[in-house]
Specification:
Number of strands of chain B: 14
Strand content of chain A: under 5%
Largest sheet of chain B: 6 strands, mixed
Largest sheet of chain A: 2 strands, antiparallel
Structural class of chain A: mainly alpha
Radius of gyration of chain A: 22 Å
Oligomer: heterodimer
Number of helices of chain A: 13
Shape of chain B: elongated
Helix content of chain A: over 70%
Strand content of chain B: 15-25%
Mean pLDDT of chain B: 82
Order of helices and strands of chain B: EEEHEEHEHHHEHEHEEHEHEEHEHH
Mean pLDDT of chain A: 83
Radius of gyration of chain B: 22 Å
Strand order of the largest sheet of chain A: 1-2
Structural class of chain B: alpha/beta
Shape of chain A: elongated
Helix content of chain B: 25-40%
Distance between the termini of chain B: 38 Å
Number of strands of chain A: 2
Low-confidence stretches of chain B: 1-25, 331-336, 349-353
Distance between the termini of chain A: 53 Å
């Protein structure tokens, strides 16, 4: 019986005589929600991609972590009680976020190739909502990826506390939002997936390597120190590492020895300033992303 | 231009109708004046004037590279015009693209569905993005899927669909938000004749059920026959506009198609002796005459060249096109100029998006 009613309703709707549409305005929030929700449904459906995104960080953790930990004699360079694999662990979490963010932003190129981007661009929603929704979608995915990496914390011997994780989640989210926005700004100007490799090699990898994710930023040659301070990822790795380690009970002295906190010209940036830099970079690249999406022929 | 009078417009004739009222109350749902689109040095659209009446199926006919897709892209706010004005559903495409987008539906030349999502999810996201009220969403989605015969596949991922099914789903999606105009860019390209007929069935149903105006581009002559009115576009200009019958009347009388031992010589002879123009097409010669039955015996007698076959028939839209442009409209017939223009356009578009 219920099916009969349902069919009748369906027909009544479809047979509405020449509907002059009311032109409901789609709110900014709803538009953002649409874009975000679609990204998440796809993310959930394509779990293989998530595993792919985690594979490389895990490889880094195992190969470099174990390899370098033994090569460095388990702590001669690092302060007592801290092995290299423990040191790099927060960096690998950031690496996961970095890669998941950029991968997710690259889906714009994918959508363009398969035509779906046009469906989004002709919808009566603001382009800024498309950019924000996409950035939030990527950020959510990357945050999930980063948090999943914490599974390895006990294995490498980094003690997790509830407070530490709670502090970490918003940091990872902000960081991921910035990186996804950066990815969108690049991806919306790209025509094919071929450019992706270039982005990987000339943007993602240098940003990762120069961020202090894989080696301490303390005691570097001057020229390299300068470059690392221009890498936005530096300001994301630092709070993540500090949050993880200080909650794990590492003393400020040890944190200082490994250069966990970024300093510029002898001035150690407080956490709030690191976050501020990440947010400022994120807002700027988001602006570029919106501009790129707004361009019409 | 008088709506009920002679709708044929000739190249270069200025349109005098004022642009549609802002509330779209005039009978025209699309009004275009002096539309020009340049891609760098290439002029894809060279000054188009057009009025599309509310509720009609309007066909935009022309060979590849004639400027069809560019025009439709301007009307859909995807491409910015170099100059000229276009008002769609009462809104200026240049000044209020957002409002235009809310009032139109689109089916693109290439599929624009999310393959990873199911048919229902694709429609759901469309409904969200176009602000279809929450209470109406399930019923409208169901009705749209039923209309295009995809109700039983609603929860399959689109990636499993055939080309025809995808196109039908796109039509369902295109009308989900009750647009005033449904734009379709070559909706039946690459589909087999059976599927093509089915798509048309759905289009007519859409119009009948909702009164939506349908604006479509095509380069299939048979399809153009099914439109209420068509505009023939060539090299970025409208060369003729009217109902299919009106256009055919322009050819006048009958079309005589002959094959001869020497078409080139025959063409000269026909021109010299009968004062009629013979157009070469695919190994044959076509001659437009007022009375075919009377002309054929004279022709056979009057030619020195050997006549192999003679056919007399009523003019088709193909003949209209041939007469207006001097060449046939065919897939494989994209002439060098048009091909180059299209290539250049791609390159220019490539720089931007």
């Amino acid at each position: 019986m219920s099916t009969v009613t349902a069919t009748r309703t369906a027909e009544a709707v479809a047979l509405a005589p020449a509907p002059r549409p009311a032109h409901v305005r789609v709110s900014f929030t709803q538009a953002v929600y649409v874009i975000w929700l679609r990204d998440l449904i796809r993310f959930y459906r394509d779990r293989a991609r998530l595993i792919g995104a985690l594979a490389q960080p895990v490889l880094f953790l195992v190969v470099f972590g174990v390899g370098l930990s033994s090569a460095l004699g388990g702590g001669r360079i690092f302060p007592p009680g801290l092995t290299y694999i423990q040191f790099m662990f927060p960096g690998v979490v950031c690496m996961t976020v970095l890669m998941t963010s950029i991968f997710s932003a690259m889906s714009i190129v994918w959508d363009r190739e398969f035509g779906f981007l046009r469906e989004i661009l002709v919808a009566p929603i603001e382009r800024s909502a498309v950019a924000v929704g996409k950035a939030l979608g990527g950020a959510t995915q990357a945050m999930v990826g980063g948090v999943l990496m914490l599974i390895f914390a006990p294995i490498v011997g980094v003690r997790l506390t509830v407070l530490g994780v709670l502090e970490l989640i918003p940091l990872l989210f902000l960081f991921a939002f910035t990186l996804t926005a950066l990815g969108i700004a690049i991806a919306s100007r790209m025509k094919s997936m071929q450019g992706f490799q270039v982005v990987m090699n000339f943007l993602m990898m240098p940003m990762l390597f120069l961020s202090g994710a894989l080696f301490p930023l303390a005691g570097l040659p001057d020229w390299m120190t300068v470059i690392t301070r221009f890498d936005p990822v530096t300001y994301a790795v630092s709070p993540v590492r500090t949050a993880l380690f200080s909650n794990a009970g590492l003393s400020p002295a040890v944190l200082d020895r490994i250069g966990a906190e970024v300093s510029i010209g002898g001035y150690t940036l407080p956490l709030i300033l690191d976050v501020g830099i990440v947010v400022a970079v994120g807002a700027t690249v988001l602006g570029f992303a919106i501009r790129a999406l707004q361009a019409r022929d | 231009m008088d709506r009920d009078g002679d709708e044929l417009i000739l190249r270069g004739r200025a349109a005098t109708t004022p642009l549609a009222e802002p509330d779209g109350s005039s009978g025209d749902v699309i009004t275009v004046r002096g539309l020009v689109k340049r891609y760098g040095p290439v002029e894809a659209v060279r000054g188009i004037d057009l009025d599309v009446h509310r509720g009609e199926i309007f066909g935009f006919l022309g060979p590849n590279g004639a400027g069809k897709s560019t025009t439709i892209s301007v009307l859909c706010t995807l491409v910015e015009a170099t100059s000229g004005r276009a008002v769609v559903a009462g809104c200026d495409v240049d000044r209020h693209p957002q409002q235009v987008r809310a009032r139109i539906g689109l089916v693109f030349q290439d599929p624009s569905l999310d393959n990873q999502l199911t048919a229902r999810e694709n429609l759901f996201f469309h409904a969200l993005a176009y602000g279809v009220p929450r209470q109406e969403r399930p019923a409208r989605i169901r009705a749209a899927l039923e209309m295009v015969g995809l109700a039983d596949r609603a929860d399959s991922q689109v990636i499993t669909f055939s080309g025809g099914m995808k196109r039908r789903l796109e039509i369902a999606r295109g009308v989900l938000h009750y647009p005033e105009v449904l734009f379709l860019d070559e909706p039946t390209i690459g589909l087999d004749p059976q599927t093509r007929a089915r798509v048309w069935e759905h289009l007519r149903e859409v119009r009948q059920r909702t009164g939506t105006t349908i604006f479509m581009t095509t380069h299939y002559m048979e399809e153009a026959e099914w439109c209420d009115r068509i505009a023939i576009i060539d090299h970025g200009r409208i060369v003729a506009l009217g109902t299919p019958d009106q256009l055919k009347d322009r050819v006048g009388g009958d079309v005589v198609v002959v094959t001869t031992g020497d078409n080139v010589r025959a063409a000269t002879e026909i021109e010299e002796r009968f004062g009629a123009r013979a157009i070469a097409d695919d190994g044959t010669l076509r001659v437009d005459v007022t009375d075919g039955a009377e002309f054929v015996p004279k022709l056979v007698k009057g030619l020195d060249v050997e006549v192999r076959t003679v056919t007399v028939r009523r003019p088709s839209l193909d003949d209209v096109f041939l007469k207006l442009t001097g060449r046939a409209i065919r897939d494989e017939d994209v002439d060098a100029g048009a091909a180059m223009r299209q290539m250049m356009m791609r390159r220019w578009q490539g720089g931007r998006r």
